[in-house]
Amino acid sequence: MEIGLKKKLEDELILKVSRMKPVIKPTKPHKHSGYHELIFLSKGAGLHTIGDDTYEVVPPTGFYLMPGQVHCWDFSKIPEGYVILFKEEVLSLYPKAQSCLFEFPKQFNIAVDSVFFHLLDTFFTAFKGNNDLDFLTAYLNLVIIKSSPFAKRNKINAPRITKEFAAFKQLLNEHFTEIKNVEPYADMLHLSVKKLNEICKSAVNATAREVIKERILIEAKNLLTHTNRNVSEIAFELNFTDSSNFVKFFKGQTTLTPLGYRSRAVG
């Protein structure tokens, strides 16, 4: 079994807005590589699994998926709402929105009496009307800023995320399989290792090395849970020197062996 890779955002696009498909057929676990995904549902019911967590769909609600996160749907009622796909570069002129984005939990409730969905209707109409990217990006900025209070209500003690941390996370999503040391990331960001560690501590109370390990662990869990690849194959895909080093890393992060985690995860 392989993790499906769905490419909903064409190479030439960096932003796309679409309506949620009105179907209730369960989807297979899959991920979207290279872009972020915001999902806002005004109707529907069922379950949404993101990584190791399963959420009940109780509209009005929102979901946020980082690049590479595995997820799947199991609707029991036809969903209605919007899906916004975008590459991180589209927010380069909106550092506040970028900072807000990295504070979003995977799921957050939206106020029942909110006019938020009217904003989404307008954004969708603007996208379908082939408006300029600058115009559409301004709408995305507004959507993120407007939904940020909803996200914060569902996340206790939300960390302070800086644009430097957001840039680090972007680089990490692109290079975590081949670059596992802090120094190259600090160099690419034109920061000292000490400064990058300070930024990470302020944002998520972890060192840069711990943030890197967490990203590798997320991918390892995805591969163990949603594929039938053996430990050696996963170790190779994640660029560990051998399977024993991968097992040592995984056990150090979780106290479980990779196969022990797989056994628990797939039941």
UniProtKB/TrEMBL annotation:
Gene3D superfamilies to which the protein is assigned, alphabetical: Homeodomain-like, Jelly Rolls
Segment forming the signal sequence: none
Domain of life: Bacteria
Stated name of the protein: AraC family transcriptional regulator
Keywords: DNA-binding, Transcription, Transcription regulation
Taxonomic placement: Bacteria, Pseudomonadati, Bacteroidota, Cytophagia, Cytophagales
Domain HTH araC/xylS-type stretches: 166-264
Keyword match Transcription: yes
Any one Pfam family match given in the protein's UniProt record, by short name: AraC_binding
